[in-house]
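example protein:
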Amino acid sequence: MFEEFKGKVLFVTGAASGMGRATAVRFGALGCKVAVAARRPDAAAETVRMVKEAGGEAIFVPCDVADEESVKTAIDTTVETFGALDFAFNNAGCGADGVHIPFAPLTEVTEADWLKVISTNLTGMFHCLKYELIQMNKQGFGAIVNTSSIGGLHMAPGFGAYGPSKAGVIAITQTAAVENAKAGIRVNVICPGPTDGTNLMADSVGAGAQDVNFLVNNVIPMGKLGTTADVSDAVVFLCSNMSGHITGCALPVCGGMQM
C-alpha cells in the first residue's frame, strides 16, 4: 500500500516537533524525500535524523512562514535539491508569543497579539500556498494539506485570536482548491482536536485553556486525545491516490468533537 509515495517529495512546515515531525517521519518511512522546514535548526536536525532512520531522504530548510522571502527560498531550495514538489503539509502555527495559544476573549486580545497570531497562522499559510501552487502549476500536479483546528470549525470562548485565524485557514484552503482543481492540484485541510504530543496542546493546558480530564470525559465523544499518528495518517490519506477525487475538504481529526 502507498507505493506511489516512493521517491516523491514532501515539504512540511512546523516540522521541528509534534504533528509536523510525525508526518515528516511517516512520509520518510513511505520512501519520500522530505524537506524539513522550521525555525529551530537543532530540533529540525533531529527530525531530519528521524526521517533518515525511517528510510527516507531529508534536508533541513530554514523557514519562517511569516516571512514571504523565507518561504520562497525554502521552497526553491526544496525543488533545486529534490527536483520537484509533490506534496506539502503546511502545519506551522502559533499563538501570540510564537508558541502558546492565547486564551483570552476578543475584548482582552491586544492588537499586537492578534497580529502575531494572524501573521503565522493565516498570512504564513498564504505565503506557503502561494509558492507551492506556483511550483505545482509548473508541474501540473501536486497535493497540499493544511493544518487548521477543530477551533476553526467551531468558535469557542477564550480563543479570540486563535479560532478566527484557523477559520481563515479553512477559507484559504477552499479558495486554493477551487482555483487550482483543473490544474491537477488538490488542496485539503485537517482540523485536529486536542492532540497529545504537541507543544500547543501542552502549552494551552498549562495556560488554563483546557483540562485534559474534562476534555476526555465530557467533550471528546471518543473519550481520548488524538495522537500525532492520527494526524499523520490523515495527511497520508489526503495526499494518496485513495483521495484522488477529494479537494477543498475540511477533515476533522478530533474524536467526534465536530458534532
In short: Residues 38 and 109 are 27 Å apart (CA to CA). The longest strand covers residues 185-192. Confidence is low (pLDDT under 50) at residues 201-209. DSSP finds nine helices and seven strands in the chain.
